[in-house]
Amino acid sequence: MTERSEVVSKRPVIKASALKNHFIMSKGYMYILECSDGTYYTGSTKDLMRRLEQHQSGEGANYTAKRLPVKLLYYEVYDRIDYAFSREKQVQGWSRKKKEALINGDEQLLSELAKKSV
Questions:
Q1: pTM of the predicted model as reported, rounded to 2 decimal places
Q2: Residues in a beta bridge with 32
Q3: CB 81: neighbour CB atoms within 10 A?
Q4: Which domains does the chain carry?
Q5: Any residues with CB less than 8 A from the CB of 86 and at least 6 apart, and which?
Q6: Do the beta carbons of residue 114 and residue 98 sit within 8 Å?
Q7: Where is 40: in which H helix or E strand?
Q8: How many other C-beta atoms can be found within 10 angstroms of the C-beta atom of residue 33?
Q9: Can you list the pairs that 21-27 forms with residues at least 24 positions away whose Cβ atoms lie under 8 Å?
Q10: Alpha carbons 105 and 32: distance in angstroms, whole number
Q11: DSSP 8-state code for residue 87
């Protein structure tokens, strides 16, 4: 069984143009969007720029299509798409507060919230 790859990059992002440096080497992304109604959408993809364009045009997902515009808040880069998909499923099960701790890089709060959910 292959070990899960390490997160190459995880950071809040404001401008999608900042992603260009990651496209050459990465093969999977887990991302969190903020919708116009303040809700979060978590997804995974092989091509983050293309997927963001799809979301913004209303073609990305039914959920985001009804809540445009969306804004990229956070992403993680993985060596394989299946690792990104697995992480997507994990984060989708988290509370809003726990997702916000991840987005804000608050490791202490994230750890505390993880202990509470056990």
A1: 0.77
A2: 42, 74
A3: 16
A4: 10-93 (3.40.1440)
A5: 4
A6: yes
A7: strand 40-45
A8: 25
A9: 22/48, 22/77, 23/47, 23/48, 23/49, 26/77, 26/78, 26/79, 27/78, 27/79, 27/80, 27/81
A10: 13
A11: H
Show the 3-state SS of 42-85. EEEECCHHHHHHHHHCCCCCHHHHCCCCCEEEEEEEECCHHHHH
Region for residue 78 given its phi and psi (left: phi exceeds 0; alpha: psi -120 to 50; beta: otherwise): beta
Q: Chain centroid to CA 116: how far?
A: 22
Return d(Cα 116, Cα 62) in angstroms, integer. 32
Q: Residue holding tokens 């209303």? A: 58
Model confidence pLDDT, tens digit, residues 6-57 = 444 444 443 444 555 555 455 899 999 999 999 999 999 999 999 999 999 9
> Reading across the β-sheet that carries 40-45, which strands appear in turn?
10-12, 71-78, 28-34, 40-45
Residue 101 host element (H or E): helix 96-103
Q: Report how far residue 96's alpha carbon sits from residue 74's, in angstroms, rounded to the nearest whole number.
A: 14
60, pLDDT greater than 90: no
> Are the CB atoms for 84 and 91 separated by under 8 Å?
no
Any idea how long the chain is? Answer: 118
